[in-house]
Amino acid sequence: MVGNYYIRRHAGRLDPEARLIITYPATLILCLSLILLGFSFQHQWHYMVIAIFATAQCFGVMIVTTAINAYLLDCYPEGSGEVSAWITASRNWSGFMSTYVQIEWVERLGPARALGIQAAITFASLFLIVFLQLYGKRIRRWQGRMVFRVWK
Q1: pLDDT tens for residues 95-112?
Q2: At what angle do helices 23-42 and 111-124 cross, to 10 degrees?
Q3: How far apart are CA 16 and CA 58, in angstroms?
Q4: pLDDT tens digits for range 32-51
């Protein structure tokens, strides 16, 4: 739906940066769900409320990661294997680090503050998306195509 609208407005062309548009509402979902999840843990709300906010957070994460994957693979189709490997490694590192750091963080600050700070960090990451939408095409043009050295 978003892609079709973009294509109609841009003479039938879908730039990789168009893939990032959906990250804006998804980031809003992520931030709200993190804040409300923090309050639900802090105030010990019903477990179904916690489940709903945790589901909303997972929903937002899936949308954002899918959009970023599509963007990177559209930008670098000749390096799809390398791009996918870096994406997978980044997911693993962030998954490990979030659980490694977050438990102590929640114990020290409480769930509402810790997840509120995480929501603020998530929202701040939108500046990277804005930067890529404004300058991504120029950066790709400047760096040129990916070139792989073949070993014999």
Answers
A1: 888 788 888 888 999 999
A2: 170
A3: 24
A4: 999 999 999 999 999 999 99
Per-residue pLDDT tens over the stretch 101-145: 888 888 999 999 999 999 999 999 999 999 999 999 999 889 887
Task: Determine the Cα–Cα distance for residues 86 and 117; give it in Å rounded to an integer.
Answer: 26
Copy the structure tokens of residue 14.
């879908």
In angstroms, how far is CA 2 from the centroid of its own chain?
Answer: 17
User: Which pTM does this prediction carry?
Assistant: 0.83
Concatenated DSSP letters of 96-124: HHHHHHHHHHHHHH-HHHHHHHHHHHHHH
| Nearest 10 degrees: Cα torsion 133, 25, 18, 97 | 60
Half-sphere exposure of 59 (CA within 13 A, CB side): 13
